[in-house]
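Hi Y.,

Following your request, here is the sequence exactly as I used it, all 262 residues.
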Amino acid sequence: MKAAVLQLSSQGMSSTKLYNYIRIANKNGIKLLLLGEYILNPFFKELESMSLSMIKEQEDFQVKMLKELSKTYAITIVAPMVIVKKDKIYKCVVKFAPNSTSYYQQQLLINYPHWNEKKYFSNETKELNSPLVFTIDGFKFAVMNGFEVHFDEMFEKLKDKNIDCLLLPSVSTFDSYERWKALILSRAFTHNIYILRANRIGEYDEKDHTWNFYGDSLLASPDGELLEHLGNKEELMIVDMSHSEVVQAKRVWGFKDNISKL
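Below is the corresponding structure, written out as tokens. Let me know if you'd prefer a different format.
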């Protein structure tokens, strides 16, 4: 399975870079393209000062654009988006396939005093459901938002889904570089799956400090090894993943079989 991560800063209503990179992905036989969080929208702290009508205008433009790109280039695009529905704002990941569009509403949101998405967004609070799961050419993907990867309960919802790769769009910042890498590699190893992470780049200035989004988009192997990663610049990362590698890792380590025999 050939997939790619597009590591960008916030693009807003601009579509030029997306068009250019998707054409490159298409020429390289890419089946799936993953974007990081807050690439199609301004960062969360900026959203707080935007009008509902402006956020809705961005959504309408981006949905139309990504549907068109997916169909034209026969590529599935997985993109975090901010959605307006009945005058309420939701944080979602949207899967644009050539002939369909699916929405995954983030179930667990950041709720820290300096970064309280849970308070701002209207995402439902209820019993956890499975993340979005879908298949391309026999290769099975699941999608979580970056914050959700911290919770064992999210992985419990995937234990019988037999996925090959977890897609993880994120918006990591501050001094979390090593911690995020350790977390992703550990999750990939203990579940014997690929994890493909897309983290945005760029900065957000707030009063006396700067939020630095450092990139480091990466691919972790089913054995918990770092296969590919980017730096902190704009870049397209093309990766190749194998279902047989997932099957082999599960067979060698036997974590799931061990539990099933208890």
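The CA atoms of residues 222 and 248 lie 9 Å apart.

Thanks again,
Q.
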